[in-house]
């Protein structure tokens, strides 16, 4: 459940365990938000199933869950908490309806999961990870997280585990527990040749073989869960991802390029501040759906942030839908899809721009006179002329962008603790930092990307048919391919991503 509380994920695991216990045949009666409108009503009901009260069912289900760092009482408190205007928050309803949907249709995911459709518990537990320790030893989900870390360290392919699999909870059988543990233990063994350990060669081919194989045998099910929108809270759907590469390619082929938010041939400068500080690549004709690239200059320690993200945004549909976290990762992704000059050009400008950004943000070296200050490569220990200083204690000063001694190539925003500054001064610092970000990080790399997209779009425009059925068709070719590559990665549907389902 992207951006959802941990209580929501745990609640979903809990009710999936309830569904497992009562089975498919009784699910419609037991998991019924009309009969039991609230968790309190469900708990207090004396005979919900098999002579057991709702509370007794929850207690039984809790024993089949491995949910680190959260208690049953905390989950219940969360589900009983009201939302806005004293109405239901919707989390209880969502948890119940999704659990019922899964138990009723789990055989459609894979026929081998049919074993949990019958009444009483099977050999299945319901887990979520907490990343409790660096070794991820608490449960199977955390061990899979550790295997991901190892594969991604050997061959960095994802910014985080959610781009490989966005699963919030796992269904895990006894066999899966054993197989995953065996995989972890085997990594300490040496290879037959060369003396290297298996862990040094561990990759996503091996990880996917393990997890996808366990899914195909009905022993492991990664679930990404999204809250049902309501009221009314009535329906849930289950969607399979990465079960068929050809199917994913067909889905992705439905996305097209519809332009960008502005012409980036004139980058952001001190004299041209009209340019946006982000690059939006649209993939819907109404431009409500876009991939927005931006640099976040903020840093908790007032240092230099190199975080340039590409995020999926859908206006009016809950905000962000996934992201790519860095320029180096973006470039590696493009290279993996056969792009050559584009990632090289972007990475070159990013490295150069980030170095300039750091130099301007953190310090100066220069000559002795007020007219000889120039950008240097080392942090300055020298104080600038008093009349060139903005405010701040000695050694913690920063210089206004607009000071007469410094033109477009001469200014500084020196790092300092926020506690030393008034709100007004801190605001000025952030404003100057944003300008530095736009000039040295954003503009150069966005100009490169824009030039490629603009050139591709021009070629596509010349090649395509103007009208289909009297309607202009979207641009195709390289631009749309770029969009599809971005969406594939951010939605965890790239070729190396694992199988998972979304219930929503």
Backbone structural class = alpha+beta
Instruction: Report Rg.
Output: 27 Å
Helical coverage, percent range: 40-55%
The general outline is globular
Number of domains: 3
Low-confidence stretches: 316-320, 363-421, 465-469
Secondary-structure element series? HHHEHHEHEHHEEHEEEEHHEEHEEHE
Mean pLDDT: 76
Q: Report how far apart the termini are.
A: 9 Å
What is the oligomeric state here?
single chain
User: What kind of sheet is the major sheet?
Assistant: 6 strands, mixed
Question: What layout of secondary structure does this protein have?
Answer:
Blueprint: H1 6-30, H2 39-44, H3 54-62, E1 65-66, H4 72-80, H5 91-109, E2 124-127, H6 140-154, E3 169-173, H7 174-186, H8 204-216, E4 220-225, E5 238-241, H9 245-252, E6 278-282, E7 289-295, E8 308-314, E9 319-324, H10 327-336, H11 341-362, E10 365-366, E11 373-374, H12 423-463, E12 467-468, E13 471-472, H13 478-490, E14 500-503
Parallel strand pairs: 1-2, 4-14
Antiparallel strand pairs: 2-3, 3-4, 5-14, 6-7, 7-8, 8-9, 10-11, 12-13
Task: Tell me what the structure shows.
The chain is of the alpha+beta class and 504 residues long. It has three domains: 6-108 and 226-241, no CATH class; 140-222 and 495-503, no CATH class; 251-494, no CATH class. The protein is built from 13 helices and 14 strands. The chain has helices spanning 6-30, 39-44, 54-62, 72-80, 91-109, 140-154, 174-186, 204-216, 245-252, 327-336, 341-362, 423-463, 478-490; strands spanning 65-66, 124-127, 169-173, 220-225, 238-241, 278-282, 289-295, 308-314, 319-324, 365-366, 373-374, 467-468, 471-472, 500-503. It has a six-stranded mixed beta sheet with strand order 1-2-3-4-14-5. β6 (278-282) and β7 form a beta hairpin. α1 packs across α4 and α1 (6-30) packs across α5 (91-109). The radius of gyration is 27 Å and the shape is globular. The protein starts with 5 loop residues before the first helix and ends with a strand. Mean pLDDT is 76; it is low at 316-320, 363-421 and 465-469.
């Amino acid at each position: 459940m992207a951006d959802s509380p941990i209580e929501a994920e745990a609640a979903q695991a809990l009710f999936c365990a309830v569904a497992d216990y009562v089975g498919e045949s009784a699910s419609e009666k037991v998991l019924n938000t009309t009969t039991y409108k609230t968790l309190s009503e469900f708990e207090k009901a004396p005979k919900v199933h098999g002579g057991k009260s709702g509370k007794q069912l929850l207690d039984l289900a809790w024993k089949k869950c491995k949910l680190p760092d959260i208690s049953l009482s905390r989950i219940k408190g969360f589900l009983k908490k009201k939302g806005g205007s004293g109405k239901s928050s919707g989390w209880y309803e969502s948890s119940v309806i999704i659990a019922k949907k899964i138990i009723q249709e789990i055989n459609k995911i894979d026929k081998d999961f049919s074993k949990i459709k019958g009444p009483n518990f099977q050999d299945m537990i319901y887990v979520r990870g907490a990343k409790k320790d660096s070794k991820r030893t608490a449960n199977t989900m955390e061990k899979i997280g550790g295997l991901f870390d190892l594969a991604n360290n050997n061959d960095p392919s994802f910014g985080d585990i959610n781009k490989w699999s966005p699963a919030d909870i796992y269904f895990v059988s006894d066999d899966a527990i054993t197989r995953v543990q065996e995989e972890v233990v085997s990594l300490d063994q040496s290879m037959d040749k060369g003396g290297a350990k298996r862990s040094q060669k561990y990759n996503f081919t091996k990880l996917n073989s393990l997890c996808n194989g366990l899914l195909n045998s009905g022993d492991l099910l990664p679930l990404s869960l999204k809250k049902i929108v309501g009221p009314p809270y009535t329906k849930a759907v289950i969607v399979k991802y990465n079960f068929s590469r050809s199917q994913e390619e067909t889905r992705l082929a439905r996305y097209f390029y519809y332009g960008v938010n502005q012409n980036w041939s004139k980058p952001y400068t001190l004299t041209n501040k009209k340019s946006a500080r982000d690059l939006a690549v649209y993939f819907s004709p109404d431009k409500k759906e876009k991939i927005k690239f931006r640099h976040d200059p903020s840093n908790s320690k007032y240092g230099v942030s190199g975080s340039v993200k590409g995020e999926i945004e859908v206006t009016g549909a809950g905000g962000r839908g996934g992201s790519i976290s860095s320029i180096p990762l973006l470039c590696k992704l493009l290279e993996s899809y056969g792009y050559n000059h584009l990632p090289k050009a972007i990475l070159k400008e990013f490295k150069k721009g980030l170095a300039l950004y750091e130099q301007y943000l953190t310090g100066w070296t220069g000559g002795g006179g007020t007219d000889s200050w120039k950008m240097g490569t080392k942090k300055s220990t020298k104080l600038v002329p008093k009349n060139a200083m903005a405010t701040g204690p000695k050694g913690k000063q920063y210089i206004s962008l607009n000071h007469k001694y410094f033109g477009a190539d001469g200014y500084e925003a020196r790092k300092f603790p926020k506690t030393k500054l008034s709100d007004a001064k801190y605001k000025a610092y952030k404003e100057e930092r944003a300008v530095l970000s736009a000039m040295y990080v954003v503009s150069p790399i966005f100009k490169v990307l824009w030039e490629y997209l603009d050139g591709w779009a021009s070629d596509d425009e010349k090649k395509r048919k103007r009208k289909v059925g009297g309607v202009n068709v979207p641009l195709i070719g390289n631009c749309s391919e770029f969009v599809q590559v971005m969406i594939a990665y951010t939605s965890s549907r790239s070729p190396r991503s694992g199988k998972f389902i979304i219930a929503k």
